[in-house]
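Design job #97: recover the sequence.
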């Protein structure tokens, strides 16, 4: 990657993250403009964003000190990451609960013409899931707008998951840049530190899903690096622009991110005042003003919907998400033994518990464990889920946290760098406080930034090791051993999560593909309309549409009358194999009565005659209708009354399922 310090000595965060974040920021901006001016999202948003990157690259090259070689190298990295992210996202299905329920459904609605700035989503689901239904209206829309641009252009909703890999690569790049060019760590150490930083098990277990906690984590990492650069004596313009774009995306990803961003900007302001009081450089005034302005503009301008619009309409910028009018209650998601515990007690009990999913897993309660012990293989398999309730930072994270603190204290005492250790501990305290701000901080994915605490202590140790030329505790061996242990444990922690999640996603994707191939093969032998119950997983209908398989969506009542079913992997949805469907009392059924013989034995003229001799009946109370045989255009329906009388009707498929009166 390119050198990022200009000839004037101004610290830059680099061209690669600037290009990657710019792509997402412009994509979201173009989508918002399209909704405001055109009333819906349009197909050209994604290619327009890509073309705009040419101008972004030219501007960066023109107004920074980067060389032609560096700019070319950065552009190639941007293209490589973009292509990889697209291929990776499109190759695997999102098998997560939230992803298949409301995330993908919101994307589908946006792709279908829904304008969240003007209308609310209604009648989404055949199963009552009102909290999820309503959440789509009130949650921030950036991840969905970006994903919808991919969906509209590529015709595949799975490709929208590419945004995860773009922010992941951005976080890796800025961490590597600040490690190599400011912290002055050796190249291999900088690469390992950047790899460890992005290897948060929360992000790993969401990387092929539409969960967005990984996005929040990586965007926070980028923000931290920008704030760190802003505290230096001279900061390049691109750092401030990157901060604005990152914060704009961050606050429009998830509501708690607003509190996180505001908290860290406020901390920077307080730090700058303290630095000025101590006679520090005046460059920090410029950084404070620009970072504060960037944060305000991100919220008020880019976050007009939902924050400003909610304030105007309801008086609460976080309407339906936080406050007395919240519509999704998370307390039932807690392990049962958390009852009566304080927020802080729940948080630390979760950190030092086994990696599991109480109360929905095999156990209803959390289970405390000794650090570095692993319940094999249950704890590793737990990371097949994208939203672990306890131990969500990794199977050995609690142990890593303990030794990171111990090692840092030893190094501080050995080197005499107590003041720098106090500063490092202060940063860790800020991460802890920002985590405890969240009322459900015990749920690791809600506070992904807490993962950075051992990483910050690792940076402190690396800096001292670099300054002392490896001489800690009287020899090179002691310092290298501590760094190796800490880095190794953090990497093992990530590998344990990844070794479970990625094979599982690949396995489930293969299972879904086999099921769709089987349905396609059956359709080629006998054309039919598949009856499918999607329930809350309604977005799965995209799989049928992509394979051009006709389907009818069963209601919850109708689904109860399926004899044999084929479940759709990792969901409550299923295909009704026996094609037997129940019609509710009171429905109006139009068909042709008293048909003699089998429909397949009639010639075209006879079939036309029968369809013309149509009549409509209203199903009285106690009368049921069972669909027996189904053909491409018509089906045989048998009406059954309470006294056992049966009437057979041939109906056109278009009129079998009218809504109840």
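Job complete. Output follows.
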């Amino acid at each position: 990657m390119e050198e990022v310090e200009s000839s004037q000595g101004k610290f830059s965060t680099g061209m690669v993250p600037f290009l990657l974040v710019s792509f997402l920021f412009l994509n979201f901006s173009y989508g918002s403009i399209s909704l405001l001016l055109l009333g819906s999202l349009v197909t050209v948003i994604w290619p327009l964003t890509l073309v705009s990157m040419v101008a972004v690259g030219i501007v960066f090259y023109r107004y920074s000190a980067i060389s032609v070689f560096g700019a070319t190298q950065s552009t190639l990295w941007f293209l490589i990451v973009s292509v990889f992210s697209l291929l990776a996202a499109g190759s695997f299905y999102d098998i997560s609960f939230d992803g298949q329920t409301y995330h993908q459904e919101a994307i589908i609605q946006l792709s279908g013409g829904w304008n969240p700035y003007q209308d609310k989503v209604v009648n989404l689901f055949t199963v009552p899931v009102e909290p999820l239904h309503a959440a789509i209206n009130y949650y921030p829309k950036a991840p969905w707008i970006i994903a919808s641009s991919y969906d509209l252009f590529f015709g595949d909703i799975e490709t929208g998951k590419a945004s995860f890999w773009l922010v992941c690569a951005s976080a890796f790049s800025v961490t590597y840049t600040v490690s190599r060019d400011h912290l002055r760590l050796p190249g291999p150490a900088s690469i390992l530190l950047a790899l460890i930083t992005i290897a948060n098990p929360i992000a790993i277990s969401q990387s092929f899903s539409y969960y967005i906690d990984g996005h929040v984590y990586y965007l926070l990492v980028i923000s931290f690096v920008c704030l760190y650069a802003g505290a230096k004596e001279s900061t390049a313009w691109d750092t401030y622009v990157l901060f604005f774009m990152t914060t704009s995306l961050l606050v429009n990803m998830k509501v708690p991110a607003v509190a996180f961003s505001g908290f860290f900007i406020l901390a920077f302001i307080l730090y700058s005042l303290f630095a000025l009081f101590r006679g520090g450089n005046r460059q920090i005034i410029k950084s404070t003003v620009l970072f504060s302005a960037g944060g305000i503009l991100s919220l008020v301008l880019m976050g007009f919907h939902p924050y400003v619009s909610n304030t105007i309409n309801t008086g609460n910028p976080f309407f339906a998400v936080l406050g007395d009018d919240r519509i999704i209650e998370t307390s039932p998601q807690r392990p049962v033994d958390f009852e009566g515990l304080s927020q802080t007690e729940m948080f630390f009990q979760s950190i030092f518990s086994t990696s599991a999913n109480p109360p929905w897993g095999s156990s209803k309660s959390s289970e405390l464990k000794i650090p570095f012990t692993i319940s094999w293989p249950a704890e590793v398999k737990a990371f097949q889920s994208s939203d672990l309730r306890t131990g969500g930072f990794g199977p050995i994270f609690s142990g890593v946290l303990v030794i990171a603190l111990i090692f840092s204290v030893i190094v501080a005492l050995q080197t005499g760098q107590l003041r720098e250790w106090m500063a490092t501990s202060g940063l860790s305290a800020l991460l802890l406080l920002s985590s405890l701000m969240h009322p459900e901080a015990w749920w690791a994915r809600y506070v992904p930034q807490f993962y950075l605490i051992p990483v910050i202590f690792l940076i402190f140790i690396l800096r001292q090791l670099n300054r002392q030329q490896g001489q800690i505790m009287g020899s090179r061996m002691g310092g290298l051993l501590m760094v190796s242990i800490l880095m190794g444990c953090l990497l093992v922690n990530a590998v344990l999560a990844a070794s479970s999640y990625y094979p599982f996603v690949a396995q489930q994707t293969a299972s879904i593909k086999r099921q769709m191939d089987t349905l396609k093969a059956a359709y080629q032998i006998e054309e039919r309309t598949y009856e499918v119950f999607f329930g809350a997983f309604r977005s799965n209908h995209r799989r049928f549409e992509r394979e051009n398989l006709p389907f009818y969506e069963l209601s919850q009542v109708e689904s109860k009358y399926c004899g044999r079913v084929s479940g759709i992997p990792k969901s409550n949805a299923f295909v009704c194999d026996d094609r037997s469907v129940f019609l509710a009392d009171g429905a109006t059924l139009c068909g042709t009565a008293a048909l003699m013989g089998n429909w397949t034995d009639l010639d075209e003229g006879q079939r036309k005659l029968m369809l013309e001799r149509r009549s409509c009946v209203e199903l009285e109370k106690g009368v049921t209708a069972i669909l027996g045989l189904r053909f491409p255009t018509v089906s045989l329906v048998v009406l059954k009354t309470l006294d056992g009388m049966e009437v057979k009707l041939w109906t056109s498929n278009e009129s079998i399922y009218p809504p109840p009166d």
